[in-house]
Each structure stands twice: as structure tokens, then as C-alpha cells.
Specification:
Length: 304
């Protein structure tokens, strides 16, 4: 039995709620308050009285009714009291992220960094849960990726940009490793040339989940941000890649430093240069490193 067949059997069982039924169970302020009270509790389970007090309900009978509606799918009752199930955690987490109920539009954020193409200031723009880094002067894009509204709460511009940088790294690291950032299903990697894209690169990696069909794309270079030969190369030049925003690195936002050696199978070279020292990294179709070569040289393209 494969995964899809197992999921179909689960949907048909007496223990699985239909999506409409599941959403109807949480369409009540008291029930949401119960889930939030449990989510904010450090140690679970908690007893009925404590949960009642933390939920700010008006009377115990009404509270008990709504708690009963949540039991089984969203809340688990044990001998010691009540605790959140995974479904309950997912509901509260979605609310905290702001994906259901918050749609902010922000003024452009000054990044303090320069465009890798023309040297003019880069700005960050936020709309429809997407944060994009770009250059208003020449139009070069430096990546546009999802960033839930909850990531804006309690952060100034500098902290928001730092969190966004770390999120981009995390999303693409998971995708490259074959794990969907949304549902943990299997991600398929495909190297693509041409076509419309939010990236300023003709060559890119596209990731698609076989289960939920979530997709995202990246330059080829982003796959190298956490690879030890690349990290070591930059460390030798006094640069910590873990704390360097990806948009400062030309090879992470363009394919200026990328050469396709073959397409069947894919073999792609990226030449990274610092102070006349060049590291050439060869990747295969899965964006795994298959070879490296380091030699002092003077690059023929813009500093990568």
C-alpha cells in the first residue's frame, strides 16, 4: 500500500474528520480560546479548572460543552487533564503566523546593502505574505519568498531582514534535501532554463512537492550556502556565510558565476571568487557537490 492509498483509507475511516467538519469545530471564539490557552501553557496536561480559568469563559457549562466538541480531534483528555493534539497546535500556529487573519502591507525596508549588479541601494518590499529584495535603480531582483505575517511581530526592520534571510536558507535547505517545508512530503528537484520567474537568473532550481504540490524556486547558488567546502572557503577570507545575508552574494541571486558543463546528465560549475582566490564547485542534477577545485586566479566576470 502506498502513501496515497493509506491516506484515502484514513479519510474513509470513522476516525477521520472531513475538512468542512474539522473547520466547523473551530468556528467558535470559546473553542479558539481553549486551544490558545492550552498552547500558551508550558506544562501539559492541565486540569479542567485551570483550563476554564485561562480560557476566560463565562460559565462552566458552556465551557464544558465547547471543550467536549474539541475533544478527540483537537484536544486529548488524559487522567491528568487536557492537552493539545497536533491538529490543535496547527490551528493555533496558523493564527500566530497570521496566514488566516493578517494581511499587512509595509513601507519599503532599507536593507543597507547594495545591488550586486549596479551598486545602488537594495530595498525590501512586503506584500501578500511575500518579502522581496530588489534594486529600484536597475530592476535586478534578489529573491522573493514567503514570509508569514507573524514574522513581522515584535521585530524592527533589521530583525525582520535577518529572520527572512534565515527562513530562505531553511526553506531551500529542506527542499534540496527532498522534504516539503509545508507538509513534509517528498520534494522533487528540477533544473530549469528560461521562462518567467521572480529571480534574475536564466538557470534555476524548481522544487515541487509530490503530495501537496507546494513549489518554490531558487538560484543554483543558494544550494551552496551551507555546504562545507564553500563555508570553509569564505571562512578563510574572514567571511561567515551563516551571518552574511544571501542577497549580498552575487552567486546566490544570479547565474553570473554559473556555467553549464552538460545537461545530460546535469553538471553545473559555480566559480566563487574572493581577493583573487577562486573556488569552483561542480553540482549534479540533485544540486549535490560532485567536485571542487580551488586556485588563485583573476575572475573574468563580476566578483562572485
Amino acid at each position: 500500500m502506498n502513501r496515497l492509498e493509506a491516506m484515502e483509507l484514513a479519510r474513509e475511516s470513522d476516525h477521520c474528520l472531513r475538512p468542512a467538519e474539522a473547520f466547523s469545530l473551530i468556528g467558535n471564539e470559546i473553542r479558539i480560546a481553549i486551544l490558545e490557552a492550552l498552547w500558551h501553557t508550558d506544562e501539559q496536561p492541565i486540569d479542567f479548572t485551570t483550563l476554564y480559568e485561562r480560557s476566560d469563559a463565562n460559565d462552566s457549562a458552556t465551557f464544558n460543552y465547547h471543550l467536549g466538541q474539541l475533544r478527540g480531534h483537537f484536544v486529548r483528555k488524559t487522567d491528568e487533564g487536557y492537552e493539545l493534539r497536533t491538529a490543535g497546535e496547527s490551528v493555533v500556529r496558523a493564527a500566530v503566523e497570521g496566514s488566516f487573519n493578517a494581511h499587512p502591507d509595509l513601507e519599503p525596508i532599507e536593507t543597507g546593502d547594495d545591488c550586486t549588479q549596479c551598486g545602488n541601494p537594495l530595498v525590501g518590499t512586503y506584500s501578500d505574505e511575500q518579502l522581496a529584495i530588489g534594486c529600484p535603480a536597475c530592476g535586478r531582483t534578489h529573491g522573493q519568498y514567503s514570509f508569514p505575517p507573524g514574522g513581522l511581530i515584535g521585530r524592527d526592520d533589521e530583525e525582520t531582514l535577518s529572520a527572512f534571510d534565515q527562513r530562505v536558507r531553511h526553506l531551500h535547505s529542506l527542499a534540496r534535501d527532498g522534504v516539503c517545508p509545508e507538509c513534509s512530503g517528498q520534494m522533487q528537484t528540477e533544473i530549469v532554463r528560461g521562462g518567467d520567474c521572480c529571480l534574475d537568473a536564466d538557470l534555476r532550481a524548481e522544487y515541487t512537492c509530490r503530495q501537496c504540490h507546494h513549489d518554490l524556486c531558487s538560484t543554483i547558488g543558494i544550494a551552496l550556502l551551507d555546504q562545507s567546502p564553500v563555508v570553509s572557503f569564505y571562512r578563510d577570507h574572514g567571511i561567515d556565510l551563516a551571518t552574511t545575508p544571501y542577497w549580498r552574494l552575487n552567486w546566490c541571486v544570479s547565474d553570473d558565476c554559473t556555467i553549464v558543463e552538460s545537461t545530460d546528465p546535469w553538471r553545473i560549475d559555480l566559480s566563487l571568487t574572493e581577493n583573487g582566490d577562486t573556488l569552483t564547485v561542480t553540482l549534479d542534477e540533485s544540486l549535490s557537490i560532485v567536485a571542487t577545485n580551488r586556485a588563485g586566479s583573476t575572475p573574468s566576470v563580476a566578483d562572485c
